[in-house]
């Protein structure tokens, strides 16, 4: 198994689904989860089971998924603080006086946030950056926005390499970090990185213009999706929509 950015390069049925299908599936699934009432606990259990099944079918290692869930940490901290700072009726939980509305709000943030993050991890781990861009183009996203995203994907690693080289140069000159007095050096490095990135952008633009660039990027080749692939890719999302509708009709 090898990786290319966030992509986990294994062969699975989920990896073979065209990118545009997975993008629509993610959007529909997130809408279904967000529209589900927080008190309908069984619905969130079903969503979680479906996501776990999709992760297993995609052959994604559990450590990879758990590490990437760290991006949710700020939301977890916010959710844990809600029961203590929210107003309204208080309830006793393990000897702690917590806000009833805060507990419900914390559950709502944690449940829906975690499901959304796992779904996004599933998309990013099974679809390469270029395939994502081609899928967005296939979905008729404005060409200017696709061009901006493609440049961002291409030059993010270049800017990261610049930052890494600047850090090595700074440390070779005696910088050890951790002291407030060095904030000036860090701020100067950030400014220099911005100037370098801006100048590189100017050079790239001039080079593109000299090669005939007219303001439109060449179309990316995107794999078309058959009706079978659409049904397969949207199976979980359409099921989630049915669960969301049932949660509002049946309720608890």
From TrEMBL:
Record GO biological process: cobalt ion transport
Entry keyword annotation includes Ion transport: no
Compartments, record wording: Cell membrane
Family annotation (Pfam families): CbiQ
Keywords assigned: Cell membrane, Membrane, Transmembrane, Transmembrane helix
UniProt-listed InterPro entries: ABC/ECF_trnsptr_transmembrane, ECF_CbiQ, ECF_transporter_component
Main location: membrane
Keyword Transmembrane helix: yes
GO cellular component: ATP-binding cassette (ABC) transporter complex
Transmembrane segments: 24-57, 69-86, 106-127
Membrane topology: Multi-pass membrane protein
Leader peptide range in chain numbering: none
NCBIfam families, alphabetized: ECF_T_CbiQ
Protein name: Cobalt/nickel transport system permease protein
Species: Kribbella antiqua
């Amino acid at each position: 198994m090898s990786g290319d950015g966030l992509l986990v390069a294994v062969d699975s049925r989920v990896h073979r689904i065209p990118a545009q299908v997975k993008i629509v599936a993610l959007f529909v699934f997130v809408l279904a989860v967000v529209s589900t009432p927080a008190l309908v606990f069984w619905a969130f259990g079903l969503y979680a089971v479906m996501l776990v099944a999709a992760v297993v079918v995609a052959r994604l290692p559990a450590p990879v998924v758990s590490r990437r869930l760290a991006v949710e940490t700020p939301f977890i901290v916010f959710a844990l603080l809600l029961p203590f700072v929210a107003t309204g009726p208080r309830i006793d939980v393990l000897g702690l006086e917590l806000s009833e509305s805060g507990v419900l709000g914390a559950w709502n943030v944690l449940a829906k946030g975690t499901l959304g993050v796992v779904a996004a991890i599933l998309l990013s781990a099974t679809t390469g950056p270029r395939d994502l861009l081609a899928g967005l183009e296939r979905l008729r996203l404005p060409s200017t926005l696709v061009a901006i995203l493609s440049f961002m994907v291409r030059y993010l690693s270049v800017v990261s390499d610049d930052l890494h080289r600047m850090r090595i140069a700074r440390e070779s000159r005696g910088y050890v970090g951790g002291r407030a007095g060095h904030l000036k050096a860090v701020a100067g490095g950030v400014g220099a990185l911005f100037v370098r990135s801006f100048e590189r952008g100017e050079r790239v633009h001039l080079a593109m213009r000299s090669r005939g660039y007219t303001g439109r990027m060449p179309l990316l080749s995107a794999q078309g999706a058959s009706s079978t692939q659409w049904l397969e890719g949207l199976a979980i999302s359409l099921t989630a929509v049915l669960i969301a509708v049932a949660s509002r009709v049946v309720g608890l």
